[in-house]
Amino acid sequence: MTPVMGEYIRPEAVAWAAFILVTALTFVGALIAVLPRNIIYNVFGLATCILGVAGLFIFLGSEFLAMMEILIYIGAISIAIVFAIMLSQPMHVQIPPAWRPKLYLSFAVSAVVFVAFSIIVLRTPWEVALERGQDWTVRRLGELFLTRYELLFELISLALLVAIIGAIITAAALGGGRKSEGGS
Amino acid sequence: MAGDLLLFLPEAACLLMALALFGLSLPRVQDQRRVHSWTMGLSLVMVAAGLAGLFQEGSLFFEAYRVDLFSQFFKLLLAVALFLVLSICRQLTGVEERYQPEFFLFLTTCTLGMMLMVSAVELMTLYVALELSSFSLYILVPLRSGDNIDVEAGVKYLFIGITASCVMLFGMSYIFGAVHSTYLAKIAATLPLWIHQPGAVIGLLLTLSGLLFKLAAFPFHFWAPDVYQGAANQVTTYIATASKAAAVALLIRLTALSAGTSLYLLDVLMALCVASMTLGNLAAMVQSDLKRMLAYSSVAHAGYVLMGVLTMTRLGYSSAMFYSLAYMVMNFAAFMVVVKVASGGQDLKISDLAGLHRRAPLLALTLMLALFSLAGIPPTVGFTGKFLVFAAAMQDGHFWLVLVGMINATLSLYYYLMVIKAAYLAEPAGPREALAVSGPTRALNYALIAAMVYLGLFPRQVLELAEQAVRNIF
Amino acid sequence: MNAGFPYLSAILLAPALGMLVILLLPHGNQRAVRWVSLVSAVICLALSVYLYAAYDRAAAGLQFVERASWVPSLGIFYYLAVDGINLPMVLLTSIVFFTGVWTMWDLQHRVKEFFALMLLMVVGVYGVFLSLDLFFLFVWYDVSLFPMYPLIAIWGSTRKEYGALKLTLYLLAGSALVLPGILYVYFQSGLFTFDLVQIAQAGLPVEAQYLGFFLFLFGFGVLAGLWPFHTWSPVGHVAAPTAVSMIHAGVLMKLGAYGVLRVGMFLCPQGLGDWSPLFALLATVGIVYGAFVGLAQTDLKYVIGYSSVSHMGLVSLGLATMSQGGLSGAVFQMFAHGIMTALFFSSVGHIYDRTHTKLIPELGGMAKVMPRASFFFILAALAGIGVPCLASFWAELLVFIAGYRAYPVLGVCAVLGLVVSALFMLRVVQKTFYGVKNERFAQAGDMTMVMIVPRALLAGTILLFGLLPRLALDLINTGVAPLVGMFK
Amino acid sequence: MDPVAPNGNELLLALLAMGLPLLSFFLVFFVTRPWVNLSCAVSLVCSGLPLSAAVWLLAGHWRMEAPILWQLTWMEGGGALVTFGFLLDPLSLLMLVIVTAVSFLVQVYSLGYMAGDPGKAKYYAFLSLFAWSMISLVLASGLMQLYIFWELVGLSSYLLIGFWHHKFSASQAGKKAFVMTRLGDLGFFLGIIVLLLNLGDLSILGLNQQAAARLTPGLLTASALLIFCGVVGKSAQFPLLTWLPDAMEGPTPVSALLHSATMVAAGVYLVSRLFPFYQGSPQALGWVLVIGTVTMLLSSTMAMVAEDIKQVWAYSTVSQLGFMLMGLGAGGYFAGVYHLATHAAFKALLFLCSGVFIHQYATNDFFAMARAGARGLKVPMLTLTLAGAALSGVWPLAGFFSKETVLAALAELPNPAWLWLGILGAGLTAYYTFRLLFVMWRPRRLEPPPEHGERAGHGAHEGHGAAVYWVMAAPLLVLAALTVLLGAAGPALQSFLAWGRPLPAGAHHTWLVWASVLVVATGAGLAWLEFGRAGAAQQGFLSRMPGLWNLFANRWYLDWLYRWLLDHVVYGLFSRLFTLNDRRVVDGGIDGFCRATLGAGWLFSLLQSGLLQYNLFTMVLVMALVGLYFLLV
Amino acid sequence: MNSLHTYLFIALVLFCIGLFGLLKRRSLIGMLISVELMLNGAGLNFMAFNRFLAPDPAVGQVAVLFIMGIAAAEAAIALSLILALFRKIRSVNVEQARQLKG
């Protein structure tokens, strides 16, 4: 970037624009993930939202996390969801519109939660820690994984293992070959 | 390191068992009997390890993991619960044969998760351990063969579970924000700084919701009836016994963080406690499926436990500990009968118990005692548990809460009596053959009866142990 | 403290061991079951009679004390002792227990379970009467209640399941007030002990006594058949099998009144003052009301059930007067009414066994058909009317005097209730035992000599204590006296 | 007059009199019941010995100086002290002799009367029980003891009236007697409690000597009246008089013993026993007088229309009891007691005589008896006449003298109305007595003697007719002798009852004697005109006044009133309402509450609709509420 | 943009949108997606506190990483269960899975 450009486009402005962009991505993505009745749009909405969140993570100082966010959510979870959709329901079948009161009630209660928690967040005098470390490196994360969070690390691998075995058993075996025409 | 291993003994045994079961699950064809015998043997080792580790104290993994009497008490409880549940898995008719090693495996990992959970004193560890145990259960529930309801139950369980865990995480994030730490010890140490911050208290409350889910307390109880009914009988037994104990342990640890200084927290917990008791008992009255009824009763019992916990006094915590032990014993006894009577692994209507007193007098007796115990009739352990819990609440001045609790106990008697009536009075429509009760089962029955009465009349040792345990939670 | 043989524990243990033995007996061995029950009943009876005789009336106070710490951290004690209040109750229990076992000798249906449950219930009853520790008192209280459900629901008659359910739920609802009360007292006393005597000696704050007595009054009052919480009692009586009715009306209802006295009044003597007018009012309403409702009944057991309501009202009235005479009368009335009702039910039980009906219009002329059974019933009825020289007369006398002294109007109403109860008792006697006999039951058959034994024991007790009331009152007065001192 | 302790001899005799009948009751009831003759023997011995003892005591203390008192504590508690013991003074000794004598005679008589009855042994047991209670009542040293035995006497009465309980009317009458006397006893009991609470002393001597001084007049009157309620019940005074005629359902000897001579007289005895106490309250005595008078007149009118021989004597008993109470109420202590004594003799005699007829002819209707040839039975017929004359007050029989004393007492009253009413009563008595006697003596149509089998009255006793007859006749003769002799014993008795001191001599009204003789003669003459003379229609003048006749025959509708009260108030109103309330409100409320609870359970289980999202919704809603609550706090 | 509250609000909005979706969507997969949004909201909170308040900037990151891991595992199990349910009732509509009730 030339200095000239810099005079017109100040870094703060860029940052602002970027921030607004990621925020918008997040919200719009979230709404798309929730509102349309077509399930495949929702997945795209989720992906969009994840991108926005990843952007926010960058703003919050952790590029590593942003990367992981995209990797895991878009690379793994969204893809898995898409597969599941393809395995489960024909995409062209339109789901009938929702029962209205349910919609309103859901909205109302979510809104109440939002209002209540916003006020709580505003009322809380969040205090900054007295001493603050500045080590944002990935190396530090790695260290922590092997020391302080060693148990956690082991645990989550165990959890993932259990999840995978479980998913295999559940998805591959359950219902397969057995009576399957039940249900209402 | 040897000392560390000793500290980690129960968990190590559990891990070992999980590995062994994993190995057993690999071959295509298994001898079911052999697998069960192995499992039983291993779980016995685990119980031994739990006993050996009972009085260990120390801390592991950079203070994230704390071994003290409190956690070891619950670990022993968990090991015993696992052993008991496995002991009624000999005829695992509710689960397809080729998945039985996995079935045992998931039971074990679930237990492992809970064992880690009761010792975890760091929020993230706690959370992940909780999830580990939850995952195992999510998978165990739909493992039942036969009906469709198992998967439906699994899905409902899962969704309520992950919602609760989301809420819990959200709450943890607020705690983290307010206290800047995820270590319970630090949180407790800076209590005066954060306890009056709305965010922190709400955070704590939301965090508790994950445990209330485990405990099946209102309003996170909705899974309980469906899962109890939908899951295989043995799985239900496990959920009803072991997982409750772990939830109580964590609930105590987390509630203790506030040291009873937040009236708001107290109010909310009291409301949930009353709602749990009342809703559970009322809804249980109209059930016809035995397991479903017991599920609602477990909601009510969650309320009783909460009553002990919400006092946030030593007596309250120790009484809640005692109650969880009591609950485990009596609930197991009830479910054991369910498993034995529903020998085909099917669901059991209350009316199916008709004529039980002639088909299997011993089982009927155990059932009656277990139900009276659940209803809180002395001299059973259930009464002593309730008494202690109520005493704790009264000590804290919650007279009305105790009154409501007692009224609820009376209400609950109604539906327990309905079951007893079915077992002792009703005559089956057609002739039913006598149930074969094997020697070990007989011994198990005697042991359970003895335990229910003994602990009811002589609570002293356990109570003192519990009091010693809660003296120093952090 | 009397060192030496633990008589009280022995009384508690005899039926408990009996129950265990019965449970362990092989199925089908009904003879052995009966004999085991009878042996334990005889042991209890012998020990009770011995205690009754050996109690040092001059020394008074608590005797035969057995006290050991049970759960020290909570201040729970294993604390058994007798004084002038509970010793008659223990004797009553033993007599009714013994006669109850004997009365059920011919039971054929699920014998083992029946006697095991009955023994369990008796253990509970003894426990309540003997324990001076609040925790144990409550434990035994509930232990004595819950066997009622199977006992009535399995072996009962008319609407047995309904009656059993109602009774059990009702009574345990009562205990739902008692437990909070006990805990409340425990913490209010500040002593952290469940030792009843200690708490009573230390005294509770007056405000605490106020609430405490309320809880005990209505909690235990339900079991004592206090109006308007009495409806479980006739329904339950009607449904229950003979021996259970005997124990139930004879002993269990006394547990309620005993609870009000021993727990409520000992612990909250000052709180009682404010409640006593209400208490006395409910008691009197119960007396009159029970008698009037009894007039309209057509089922023998309902009649007795309502007469129990009426008579237990007398006990309550005696308690409510807070005077030496009233309390003595109440305790004596508990004893006398227990024996009397047991006699009632055992006679009705015989009639029902032989005729399979207890509806008054269907019976008639029973005095011709079964003169012995009729004799016992009529004797009980006379005792119920308050005929002098039968035990309950003295009790009623004392209660009336005290009741009139404390609440003149209520006292007069209560005496009036007695006339109505005479009317309905005699009506029943007339319709059932006199008049034209129903030929259907001409061959029903009277009691055999063996069956007379328990009834004769009960009748003899009524007569003995009726002719020699001091046998009981000298003892009861010693027990009541310290309590009266506490009211001042 | 401080009481003295008994010497050994007196103690023994008194205790013998009190104890033997109880012993006999237990022996007969529980031991010897299967052996009828043995039972009778035991019972006879145990009533004969007390009679001897009583006579011995009376003879030994003919000139006693001070009452003899002996007592034990029976029960003690709550300020109430109940003693058991005996108080021997002239009154109780006299009454003791009367009771034991009549009791013994009746027992002898019953040997014949109850011959062949399957329940004879039980009957004797009950008689013994009665004798025990009555003797203990008479000798009672304290009011509480008196009350206790008063109740026991009622119980024996109940048992004996209902002795033939297979007869519905008999058991009904027994019940009625018990409940009505009980109603009166309610007042008695309350009176005792009032005295106990205010005086603290229930000994009879204490009451008589100190009550007037230590009680306020209001309390004294109240307690006296309350106690008098018991008298009203027991002595069948207005308004509780209807049980006594019904009580005639019992065996006739029982009527003779209980319902004429002794038990019903206990009421009068009680007033005499407490006479000094009553004298303390003129109002109370006034009420006694009023009640006595009303009763006497009412029951006399009833007797005028009765056709059942026992009914006539029953009404007459009621009226004579009322007459005694009039005497007492007028202040004539001796008058009341004297009439009590003579009445016991001639009324027992009347009943026993009637019993012979009833036994013989198996009917209670004296018209029917007469037609059947009753006058053929000489001994009973003569004694009946004698006793009837005594009842009417014919000179020189006992009744004449005692009636005169009562009238004399009435004459002392300032208001002459009482006297005239008393004389009117005497006239009525004479009328109905002679009505019966004339009917018996002069039957209109004589029927042939009924077949032997038809008079199977109360069992198979044909076999030993003559023996039975004489066993029954012997007591009649003894009583007849007494009826004659007691009239002469008046002055002696008077000095005995007054502790040997001559009473202040009241004015002797010669005109009174003539007046009463005139009235009696009028009554008897009227009866002669209507029933006795040849060709009389044997229809009383009342039968020409159907209104009055109905009123009298229906006992002034008193029974109807009671029936109505019982049916409509006790059963129809209280009992029904209370029962409804019990079913619907009290019990129904509980059941409704239970149903509502179950309904609530059903509602709550609807929350579990199976729709996952509703459950999640509830969760979130609660979360939201919790958040909101926080903001509000 | 550089204030704690901004991020907390964004996180809260995400969380609430997730809640809304969770309650509204009838497709189980749609509900799963909503849950992921909620988890992200929680993660965002952690990072925000980490950035503005916490003493050690690594802690929040670690937490978020673990949340992701858990989310992945959850998704795996959830999807497999949804598929199993689909095989049984031929639908992923949550309103059709209502055999268990009462």
In short:
Chain B is mainly alpha-helical and 474 residues long.
Explain how this protein is built:
The complex is a heteropentamer of chains A (184), B (474), C (488), D (633) and E (102). With 474 residues, chain B is mainly alpha-helical. Chain B is 75% helix and 1% strand. Chain C has a two-stranded antiparallel sheet. By secondary structure, chain E is mainly alpha-helical. Chain E has 3 helices and no strands. Chain E has helices spanning 4-24, 28-52, 57-89. Chain E is elongated, with a radius of gyration of 17 Å.
Observed structural traits:
heteropentamer, C: 488 residues, mainly alpha, two-stranded antiparallel sheet, 2 strands, globular, E: 102 residues, Helix Hairpins, 0% strand, elongated
- The helix/strand series of chain B, from N terminus to C terminus, equals HHHEEHHHHHHHHHHHHHHHHHH
Mean pLDDT of chain B: 87
Largest sheet of chain C: 2 strands, antiparallel
| Widest sheet, order of strands of chain B | 1-2
Topology, number of strands of chain B: 2
- Assembly category: heteropentamer
Alpha-beta content class of chain C = mainly alpha
Q: Can you tell me the number of structural domains of chain C?
A: 1
Number of contiguous helices of chain C = 20
**Which segments of chain C are poorly predicted (pLDDT under 50) over 5 or more consecutive residues?**
none
Q: Radius of gyration of chain C, Cα only, in angstroms? A: 21 Å
Overall geometry of chain B comes to globular
The proportion of residues forming helix of chain C, as a percent range, comes to over 70%
Helix content of chain B: over 70%
Question: What share of residues are in beta strands of chain C?
Answer: under 5%
Question: For the terminal residues of chain B, how far apart are their CA atoms?
Answer: 23 Å
Rounded to an integer, what's the Rg of chain B over CA atoms? 21 Å
Strand content of chain B: under 5%
When the domains of chain B are counted, the total is 1
Biggest beta sheet summary of chain B: 2 strands, antiparallel
